[in-house]
Amino acid sequence: MSDETVQDLSLFRNPPGFRGRSAVVVQLWWLVQSTLFAWSPQFMFGWRAWLLRRFGAKIGKGVKLRPGVRVTYPWKLTIGDHCWFGDGTLLYSLAEIDIGDNVAMADNISIVTGSHEFRKPTFDIYALPLKIESESWFCSGCFVHQGLTIGRGSVIGARAVVTKSTEPYSINTGFPARKVGDRRVKPDA
Length: 189
Prior knowledge:
The longest helix has 15 residues, at 23-37. Helices cover 13% and strands 28% of the residues. The chain is globular, with a radius of gyration of 18 Å. It is α/β, with parallel strands linked by helices.
């Protein structure tokens, strides 16, 4: 094994403007999120959406965000109408996250737009935008990597790790997630 340094965190620096707002605004949001957002009663969906909007998020009507949802930078977040977000959901918005209408996320979902260049000793950070098309459903505990498009009506199975964009109306499970079927609406019997 080589003695070559592969990671020296003392060399790490955020690129200028990476966060999209000043350090004061970032810290203020994190304080508000940890108190006013997180401590609010479960039924106060409108309050939490209002707080996100005050920090630049674009939030549609009828959005239900549970108090345990975490948003890194709200000014990089767009959510359509009638979406649901369960407790423990992380919207790691280092880059833009664009979510369509009628998207359902269960609990403990990770939607991640950033990572690090692990082959550089400086451990450079980068971010790629992520698009989630309307009518998608994310089951408990799944993880979605940066730079992808989740196709309209996609189902992401419990504990799935999505490393590639999904086809519209596909059912995706596993690690890494792969298409295992098509989502079809069954007519009422």
